[in-house]
Amino acid sequence: MAAALQQTPITYRSRSPPSAQLQSKPTIKLSLSSNLTLPKLSIKRLPRRRGGGASGARMADSAAGSYANALADVAKSNNTLDQTSADVEKLEKIFSDEQVLGFFTNPTVGEETKQKMVDEIAKSSSLQPHVANFLNILVDMKRIDLIKEIVKEYELVYNRLTQTELAIVTSVVQLESQHLSQIAKKVQQLTGAKNVRIKTLIDPSLVAGFTIRYGNSGSKLIDMSVKKQLEEIAAQLDLGDIQLAV
Predict the structure, then answer these.
(1) What is this structure's pTM?
(2) Among 41, 39, 60, which Cα is nearest to 51's?
(3) In this structure, what are the phi and psi dihedrals at residue 237, rounded to the nearest 5 degrees?
(4) Which region, left, alpha or beta, applies to residue 176 given φ > 0 means left and ψ of -120 to 50 means alpha?
(5) How many CB atoms lie within 10 A of CB 124?
(6) CA neighbor of 159 nearest in space, from 221, 81, 80, 100
(7) Considering only CA atoms, which of 197, 168, 179 is closest in space to residue 82?
(8) Tens digits of residue pLDDT in 60-105
């Protein structure tokens, strides 16, 4: 069964206060307007060349990284890296709705209509002005289709700038906050990171227990799940693949 992303990550810090809690996902209405005034944000226009296969994917990654770095530069200059990270997570939730993403990538929807929707999102989600303006720029430059990749790239940039280690904890049920804090401290000991940020996933197929994935692109895994233990027992008994009823 596929893992389902939980809404609220927690951050463990050794010397600084935790990031602001995220707000719940707003209701999107496609017919509202706003007069929100936003500051200017300068981003170098990237070429619109298209490529297929691996080449096209590399170009998209490069473009997303450029936008993410531009946003991080603005956030760093006005000392809002943490708040901007929280805003980016709000965008991640909003654009995980395929209907919302489809609206913004639909070429038959006028740019003015999309800009009004950006204003509504900014108001309902309490986005900082430079984040709202960043969305407007993506709409104007027709790069809103990169929003999910930009979110991932911004997270990498944020973690690097703040010396933060991201750990993804997957469990059958939501773990208590004290248990997540203990996991964060353990990851900090293992990595030597100044800060550890925890994101949680729910995956009933684990049966019980949990897994912790951290390191560069999640390259390191601590598997404390019953599913893993059963698979190891099956391997030792030469039972082949086993099916777990959940």
Answers:
(1) 0.62
(2) 60
(3) -90, 0
(4) beta
(5) 18
(6) 81
(7) 197
(8) 568 899 999 999 999 999 999 999 999 999 999 999 999 999 999 9
